[in-house]
Records
---
Amino acid sequence: MNRMTVATVAVAVTAVVALGASGSTTKSGSGSTGTVAPQATAAAGTAAKSNATTQPPTTPTPTTIPARRVTGKAVTLGAGTFAGGTDVAAGLYDVTPGAGQSGNFIVSGTDSYDEILGVGGAGGVPKVRMTIAKGDSIQISSLSQVSFTPVTAPLVTTHTPVTLYAGTWTVGQDLGAGRYVATPGAGQSGNFIVEAENVDEILGGSTADGGVPSVSVNLQTGDVVNISSLSAVTMTPS
């Protein structure tokens, strides 16, 4: 074989080797058993981790009305003179007379009350909501039994209908802030006062005596409603 023939054979062999190497590379890159690129593996891992740590949305906790703080201590007294903080612990009370009794009940001090307690006389009321403070003077006459019961009723903070009676009531605790129409119970007449709102009316009774059948009032949180000689006053939102 001459030199030209040997050279031609060498070139052919080289081409075949090159072609085989090229085909192997293509198969390796496209076959199902090929190696997955590192970048793709990292991306898949990140997506899986993200899905695993995703938390469901939280439901807001509903607003709850705080519980009333009960103050005072239950006690029953008879006729006589007594002191707040000594004979009656300071606190908020509903005060009621003994069954079938009627007489005078007067408190002088931080808050003042002057009621006919019982239903026997004109203007008599079956119970009074009142705050007793240390140093108050309590006078009871013509009554052998008067019960002081600490108030445990839930707080009322919404602008909704509510019925009040003789005594003192705080807006934001016993009724919600807002505008109301106050009307007395049938056949009743007494005083309805909210000093902070410049309201001072005889609620019920005849117009000749200065009485009015109803009164509209705007109440703000912290206002105090004073009611006397009335066993029921309906507060209707308006």
---
Amino acid sequence: RTSIGAHETTNIDLWFDGVRYVELGSFLGEIALDDATDEERVRLRAGSDEFFDQHRTTVIVSGTNRLYVVSSFVSIEENQLDLFETPYGNIGWLPKGFDTLPEG
């Protein structure tokens, strides 16, 4: 998720479902999305044709790095959620969000 700042009024979430492979850094900075090249597909296939027969390869370009997520589905959503706010509502027993422990 991007964060809302002085110049932004919304942020962008990338959602991946059915993830089969991830190759990402811990900090991405400014990114762009791209399609995988034939050479990248060959390298990522690594003995598993399943990656490309039934899944999508999303390339995340961050600076000079090309990073990869192989998944069944990818969604891009614009919203106004806080950086740590979940779009799923309350998770399990956490009544007020991730940072709240149960009382008692």
---
Amino acid sequence: MAIIDPEGLFGGDRLRRCSNAAQLHWPRLFLASDGFARLEINYARIIGRAYPTFNPVPSDAELQACLQEYAKNYLLFLYEVGGQLWGQWDTRAELLPRYKTAADRRSPIPPEPAFTRWKRCYREDNKAFPKCFGSISETLQYGVGVGGGKNTCASDDARVSGLLPSIDNPPFGTTKPDVVLEAEPDRQKKPNPADGFEDVQRSWFEQWWVVYWRKRDRKKAWLAFKKQVRTQTRFDQVMKATAAQAPEMFSKDEQYRPYGTTWLNGERWEDETTAVPPAAAQDDYPEFPA
């Protein structure tokens, strides 16, 4: 894992030019990179690695906006290899781990000479920053890169925006994730299973199963969950209802608690919660004269 330089985090010129949101996200995204400071631009992988404790997690739109800011401000070099988008952070070698893992070595190297020109562009034109994004699209003549045609310095954000696909056609999910948690909040449109949404549902299910009060018939419970819980809003509703009903359910013997399949298919998250009266203490019993 790379090391964050406090001077760069608190006083770095390039990071300071980013929005507050991008600055706050940067440490997590930087540390989610591999030993070469390369980040696979894959929403599910990023969420699973950098935001496992967040609820709700950042949406793909939020992360795309941050990545575009990093690219615009010369923090992140974006390139495409084999149809997968990658980002290479510009950081000093001494801040990277000395020993690289096998997974680190499998990450694709940024194309040259585009990467070197990109770094030189910032260093030479720092006084007029941000003057241009460098010559990233020139790498197309070598069969690697992002964009198209000959690149020139751009005075607007159009060049950087073109480096990432639009929100309607996001780059995330192009590789099957190892770990995922949640999808974009409040997305009500029926998802396409090919986009890895089932993996997101699986992550939701794991979170719910941990707190559910009867861990029996897991496979059927998963099938019911996959059918019933298809949006962030519904997942939040299910988790809230499970927490609210837990005291009542745990006050019963396990045999009287509903199976997960029954609870989900019966839409029991709509049930009203019944308060469980506390057990009376010994001192609360009335005293009778002898």
